[in-house]
């Protein structure tokens, strides 16, 4: 705070300061890192309003945030703990009821409870760069401090529902247009702008203006409100399938039009508490903290990343092209290497096609495509990579081919260049062994489509140096990926878990469930697609090749289901061949169940002497989840994943695991590890090899602990 007339008003709370600027009391929230509304802040705000009210020298109050934000919202770490007074609705009501003028001056984030504080003030100003939003839905909640009642009064039902159901951030300019704020600051000096605005309001004798006093129907008529609510209900039923809080948000917003303000607030509170107590809130809050925690691998603290300004990509197929686009989109130049001119032309065309798709969908403009492609060059000669700071290899999944590529990279790349492989399964230590510099070799496992999918597994082989790992994390940040540190093993974290998930599904299918029932059960659980739909999408031939490769080393105790092989032998590889587990009309992406597939499944059961049992959808989910949880426990025990939360983020961001369930480890904790262990022990009577309980689960249950005890975080 800079104004020269400022004087401290009283020794206020450590996180909420009070400074008199003439007759304006500036209430400053200073609670790093983001001014979340912890109990001390709430208390400090109420005390400040009371002090302002009692002090005849004060004619108006200006609320501002210190640091980079106004207020980022409620303190998410307090959710699920016993509530401490004053609660946020009380704070907001107290602000609104202040008989002296209260103005909020917003910079940075004014989100959730932060925006609700501002909405309770009598006037709002924001400077450019401010982000205003009600993102509670992303945490399984609804705005619980009057947001559902005040926002529609200010901006109408349709706009309020849009903000609350999407959770998106509106910029200051849009907020002004919507009516969420009253004034856009001319400069970014939030305190100066705020004080000037307050003085202007005082000079104009502006009235104290509680938002609650506004009629909910002043801007939108009854019909428009009903139409907005009905449209939101309809859309939410399909788009937010399985989610608990969106419908509650709509109910609360509707109440802004059908109930008096205080009754609307009371309903909002009831619905908020229902959301707060829902397992979805626990899952989503866990995901919020976990996705921040994964970026803090030990190497990021221990080492400084190497500078990366130019990037090479070897291979211009599905992954190479997608990776190139991800890098170009981050504003970095890319040099692509292919085997010959023809393959290079295909690689470039691949990259262009990705951009054409984005242009066609209206996601980018034509000139953005041109600007990105201007950073792209291609070559058939490895010498073109001589100056690259980091090279990502994405050639065929074949050890001999990869080794040949890495020995070339070793020959041409400058000292200190990071050499990365996008291999899905191969031994990265062996690949590193093809170079004279294994300390520079790392795995960067992208997911398809690589320019869209958020997950990046950073695979750390034995001999890589810490600064190379730190460089990979920094690259992930630049590419806006969610990085997860994984140890080297067959399939790393994600594909290793995918393998047991598929195996457990195959066992169920051979034992009696149809692939269509299994897919349906997993969709109902929250996956966007069932496991067999995914096989059809990715191409059955890929898994078939992997199964053939592993056949010689497969443990003889492992039960092997041949149904998928029977389909592949017929050339049924899924969507691309028009048939797989489903039948596809030409060009269609959704398939129809296929009686012939069911006959093949039945024939296989007969061949191996299994008479079909029936399974409920619930049993299907339990088995598939137990398979993932058990293997994930082994992945953590072996140190392949640093913590259970790294597994959770891998499956949420790379494999469609429903975020609202928090990931498989959080889900296991919510089920209760003793329940999971009992189920595994029961299943191991059917197949002691596959269902052997992980020693980590056994140990945790003995200790009365759960996976969260290994996360080292508050969630
Ligand atoms: N409560 C507690 N901690 C929070 C927090 C919150 N609301 N928001 C952020 N943090 C923490 C983060 O966990 C992180 O901690 P670590 O450094 O220990 O990892 C730190 O603050 C910085 O956060 P980011 O790394 O996300 O920083 P950023 O600058 O990239 O983004 C932000 C800042 C836009 C504010 C972003 O943190 C954000 O979106 N926060 C959440 C906002 C939100 O969802 N608010 C609604 C809360 S629910 C609510 O308010 C309900 C209600 O009405 C009662
Ligand atoms: P692809 O077959 O689509 O592309 C491979 C490309 O590499 C081809 O364009 C080929 O011409 C080129 N190539 C082969 N040898 C080369 C050489 N010596 N020098 C230069 N270019 C060469 O394969 P895809 O799907 O892109 O896979 C590439 C890698 O990415 C594999 O290791 C795969 O396991 C991995 N991966 C694949 C995923 C997927 O969903 N397709 C997901 C994650 C990783």
TrEMBL record:
<comment type="similarity">
    <text>Belongs to the enoyl-CoA hydratase/isomerase family.</text>
</comment>
<protein>
    <submittedName>
        <fullName>3-hydroxyacyl-CoA dehydrogenase</fullName>
    </submittedName>
</protein>
<keyword id="KW-0576">Peroxisome</keyword>
<keyword id="KW-0511">Multifunctional enzyme</keyword>
<keyword id="KW-0560">Oxidoreductase</keyword>
<dbReference type="GO" id="GO:0004300">
    <property type="term" value="F:enoyl-CoA hydratase activity"/>
</dbReference>
<keyword id="KW-0276">Fatty acid metabolism</keyword>
<dbReference type="GO" id="GO:0003857">
    <property type="term" value="F:(3S)-3-hydroxyacyl-CoA dehydrogenase (NAD+) activity"/>
</dbReference>
<dbReference type="GO" id="GO:0016853">
    <property type="term" value="F:isomerase activity"/>
</dbReference>
<keyword id="KW-0456">Lyase</keyword>
<dbReference type="Pfam" id="PF00378">
    <property type="entry name" value="ECH_1"/>
</dbReference>
<comment type="pathway">
    <text>Lipid metabolism; fatty acid beta-oxidation.</text>
</comment>
<comment type="subunit">
    <text>Monomer.</text>
</comment>
<keyword id="KW-0520">NAD</keyword>
<dbReference type="Pfam" id="PF00725">
    <property type="entry name" value="3HCDH"/>
</dbReference>
<keyword id="KW-0443">Lipid metabolism</keyword>
<comment type="similarity">
    <text>In the N-terminal section; belongs to the enoyl-CoA hydratase/isomerase family.</text>
</comment>
<dbReference type="InterPro" id="IPR008927">
    <property type="entry name" value="6-PGluconate_DH-like_C_sf"/>
</dbReference>
<dbReference type="Pfam" id="PF02737">
    <property type="entry name" value="3HCDH_N"/>
</dbReference>
<feature type="domain" description="3-hydroxyacyl-CoA dehydrogenase NAD binding">
    <location>
        <begin position="310"/>
        <end position="487"/>
    </location>
</feature>
<dbReference type="InterPro" id="IPR018376">
    <property type="entry name" value="Enoyl-CoA_hyd/isom_CS"/>
</dbReference>
<feature type="domain" description="3-hydroxyacyl-CoA dehydrogenase C-terminal">
    <location>
        <begin position="620"/>
        <end position="704"/>
    </location>
</feature>
<dbReference type="GO" id="GO:0006635">
    <property type="term" value="P:fatty acid beta-oxidation"/>
</dbReference>
<dbReference type="InterPro" id="IPR036291">
    <property type="entry name" value="NAD(P)-bd_dom_sf"/>
</dbReference>
<feature type="domain" description="3-hydroxyacyl-CoA dehydrogenase C-terminal">
    <location>
        <begin position="491"/>
        <end position="584"/>
    </location>
</feature>
<dbReference type="GO" id="GO:0070403">
    <property type="term" value="F:NAD+ binding"/>
</dbReference>
<dbReference type="InterPro" id="IPR006108">
    <property type="entry name" value="3HC_DH_C"/>
</dbReference>
<keyword id="KW-0442">Lipid degradation</keyword>
<dbReference type="InterPro" id="IPR006176">
    <property type="entry name" value="3-OHacyl-CoA_DH_NAD-bd"/>
</dbReference>
<keyword id="KW-0413">Isomerase</keyword>
<dbReference type="InterPro" id="IPR001753">
    <property type="entry name" value="Enoyl-CoA_hydra/iso"/>
</dbReference>
<dbReference type="InterPro" id="IPR029045">
    <property type="entry name" value="ClpP/crotonase-like_dom_sf"/>
</dbReference>
